[in-house]
Known about the structure:
The chain is α/β, with parallel strands linked by helices. The protein has one domain (6-303): Rossmann fold. The chain has 13 helices and eight strands. It has helices spanning 15-24, 67-73, 98-111, 124-135, 154-157, 164-179, 183-191, 194-197, 201-212, 216-227, 254-267, 286-289, 291-303, and strands at residues 34-36, 42-47, 51-56, 77-84, 118-122, 143-146, 242-247, 274-279. Strands 1-2-4-3-5-6-7-8 form an eight-stranded mixed β-sheet, sandwiched between helices. Helix 2 crosses helix 13 and helix 6 (164-179) runs antiparallel to helix 10 (216-227). It is globular, with a radius of gyration of 18 Å.
Amino acid sequence: MKPSNENNHKKQPGFWTHFAISLTIVGGMLAANFSSKAAESFSVEVIGKGKPVIMIPGLMSDASVWRPTAEALSGQYQLHLISIAGFAGKPAIDGELLPTVTQELLQYINQHHLKQPAIVGHSLGAFMAFNLASSAPEMIGTVIAVDGLPYLAPVFSRTNDTTVAMMQGQADYLRQQYQQMSPQQLSAMTAQGLFIQATSQQHQQQVLDMATRSDPKAAGQAVYELLTTDLRPVVHQIKSKVLLLGAGGALTSNADRERAKALYQQQIASIAHATLEFNEQSRHFIMLDQPAWLANQIISALQE
Length: 304
């Protein structure tokens, strides 16, 4: 896919290919481990006891990606592992997806009397974390965004000057393309970018399996909503601490990594208490590639 304003920018091969794929083609515990149907748009697995932490996976992923991290956290925290409708075998819903998930997650927080839960989100889930914290700043605690941003489109346009209006045509086109895909075609497309997602073949296969079981229409709707929803004008409303974690392991040079860091930093610049950290060894699924590093980052952020 090429951005509509491509000719206005010099090409930067490598980084932008990796970055775009990583953000758009994604996804024996302890006692007190149970599952529940919390809403139409998502289901929840609850693990552990303590301060509540909601963990949201990325595009075409489910709660299984969080289990390595949950094992490290469940002794201190009550973890609410989310699986979104239409992803990794979960039944899809009609109409808007991410706005529905946002609304129903806020209802879930109220219904279960979760006091300022921390939100840990990966990729699309990171976008959801920014959305929740800016929509209801009094309700949400610490935000930990794992390789995801308040607005996706700049990874295609190569500039944070990009607006929703610039991307509307691309978003419409992509949604239509996804709607016409078979599950096999969706799987084949995902397979092309697996080297960006995770380092080991085992984890790459895990990512592919989740995508293969995902609903193409739901994935297309999510991509459309990510490209047409810009949270940058509202993230300044976030009152809690924000930790944005980037993955630089698939980037090919120091210059690529510096460009990525600059783009990430610009997107959180208006948030009062925001910090950026990069893991230069990990690929997009940091929880699979660098589970100990990620768990330590989360624990440190939650304890501060």
